[in-house]
Amino acid sequence: MEYCVVNITNNIKQNSYQGNSTPAVTNISTTGMRARGEFSSPQTAILTNILELIVLLIKQLNEQAGEQKPEGKTLTGGKCNDTLKGGKGDDAIRGKQGNDTLSGAKGNDRIFGGRGNDTLQGNSGNDILRGGKGNDTLLGGKGNDKLFGGKGNDTLGRVNDNKSWGFYGNDYLQGGKGNDTLYVGKGNNTIIGGKGTDTAIFEGKPIDYTFTKENDGYLIATHKDSGTTAHLSNIESIQFKGVEDKSYTEDSLLNNKYLTDRRDISVYGDTTLNRMVVMKLSTMELLQELPVDAKSVYSADYVTADKAYITPRGSHFIQLLHRNADGEFEKGKIVDLPFSPRTPNRNNNNGLVLYSGADKPMFALIDSATDEVVATGGRNQVTKGTFDNYDSKWSTGHAQWINDKQFILPDRQTNELTLYKVSKEDNGAWNVEKTDSLIAPGSVHTFFGKRMDANGDIKIFAPGEGHNEVNNTDANLYELKISGDNLSINRQVNVSGGLHHPGIHPNGKLIYAPTSNGQVNIINRENMEVIKTIEAGKGAGHVVFIAERNLALIVNHNDTFMTAIDITTHEKIKDFEVAVDDPDHNTSLQAHTGRVSADKQYFYNFASDSGTF
Q1: Could you tell me if residue 58 is inside a domain?
Q2: Angle at 563 between CA 559 and CA 565, to 5 degrees
Q3: What confidence tens digit (pLDDT) does each residue in 347-382 have?
C-alpha cells in the first residue's frame, strides 16, 4: 500500500529526494503525542497506526531511492506528485502516475514521465526524455537531447516562463497525439510533430532565417548568422519569438521571396527616378520600388544586418531603410545633416558611421545604434572639385576610417587631406579634433590597401584624380603614412590618367588601377612602379576581383561595356556590352560596384542613371 504524506514534520514533504544520497527520513517529531495523561486508549491506537505508517513510508522512500551505482541512479516515483533528481551518473528516472517533476544532472539520463502532467528536465548530458500520457513539459539541456512528447498537449524545449531557451546542442524533439508546442533551440535540431495541431516556435524573426524544402519532405530553416539548421516535419503552425500574434505555415515561409540568403537581395539607388529598387539577384526580379522624397538618390548602405542608410546626394539628410520581420523593406526616420551626404563609412568597432559631404567639404558622425548625429566638422562652405574626371561636382572624396580613433577627410577643391582623432568622453559625448593635414599635388578620391608596418605606422593608398584634362600627365597614386597623430606622403607613382577606385590584386603584390583615359595600370605594390598597361573603356573606374575565376572586371563609367582581365596572365579577355548609350539621359551608365553570386558564376550591376538592371 502506498501513502502520500505531506508535512508530517519539516523534514517530510511530498516524495522528494536526491539521486546522490539515500533519502532517509529522520528526526520524526512525536512531541505532544506522548503521555502526560492526555490520550485515551483509542487515541493511543490511532497514534500507533500513524507511527506504523511513518515507518512504512520511510521504508518505501528508501526503497524508491534505489542503490547508488557509479553509472547512475534508478529512481521510481509512484502515485504521488514526485520530485526526483538524478546525480552525476547516467540516471534512469521514472515518474509513474502523479504530476511529477523529474530532472537529471550531469550524466546521459533517461527520464520517463508517466501518466501525470509532468515536468522533465535533462540538464547537462545527452538525455532522452519521454513525457507519457499527460500534458507534459520537456526541457533539454546543454547536451544533444532527444525529447518525445506523448498523448497529451505537450511543450518541448522551453526552460521557463521568461522565454529563455533550454537547449543548445543538436536536439531531437518529437510530439505525440496531442496539440504540441515545440521550442527550437540554438543547435542543429530535428523537430517532428504528431497527429495533433503542432506548433514550432523559433527565436528571432523570419528575416533571421532562410527556408528550403528537401526531397525527404523536411522544411529546413537555416539561421543566417550562426548557420545552424532546424529540420521540421508535421508542423502545422510556425511562430517566432520576435513576432507577436502571428503564425506562419510552411508554404507561406517558402513562398516569401525576401526570406533568402542576404547576398541574394540587393538594394540600389536610382538617381534618375529618385527611388530605391530592391532586386532578388538569383531570379533577376524587381521586388520593391521605394520612392524617396529627395534629390539624387544615390545608394542604400547597410549599417547593421537589416538596417541601411539611404544617401540622397542632393538633399541635406539621410533616411533609414529597415527590413521588417518578413524581410520587406520599409523607410524609416530622417536624420538631418548640415550638408548633402556623399558616402557613408561604418566603423564596425565603435559603431560610428562617417559621412563626407557632397556639397561641402564637411564630415558627420552618426551613432548607428541610435541613428543620431554625434559630431560634425570641416569647412561649412559650398564648393566643388576643380577637374573633369569622374564628375567633379562633389566637394569631397570618400572619407576613410584609419582605425577606431582616426579618420581622413579629402577636400577636392583644395587638395587638402585632414587627419582627425575621435574620442569618447566620460559623459558619453564624442569629441573630434584635427591633428594634422597636408596638401596633395592633386585631389584624392578615396583610400584603400591599409596595412601596418614593423614600426607601428599605418600605410594606406590614396588615388589621385588628376586635374582638368581627361588624358592626364599629373595623376598619381599616393602612399600615405600615419605615424601617431601625423600624416605624410610616403611614396607616389605617376599613372596614365585620373584614378577612381583601384584595388589590390588577390596575391597582395600588385595593384590594378583603372584610369579615366580608358586604361588599367598594373602597379608593383612594393616598388611603386607601373609594370603593364591594359586598354579598357572610357572612364574606367572600378575593379572587381573574382579570385575563384582568376578574373578582374573593370567598370567603365563613361562607356557601354565592361572589361574582363585574366589576373594570372594580366591579359585582357574581352569587352562585353552591358548598357545602351543614351547621351540625352545618361552621363554614367554603370553603378559603382556590383555583386558576385555565392558560386562566383554571376556578376550583377545596376545602371543607376538609366534605371536598368
Answers
A1: yes
A2: 160
A3: 999 999 999 999 999 999 999 999 999 999 999 999
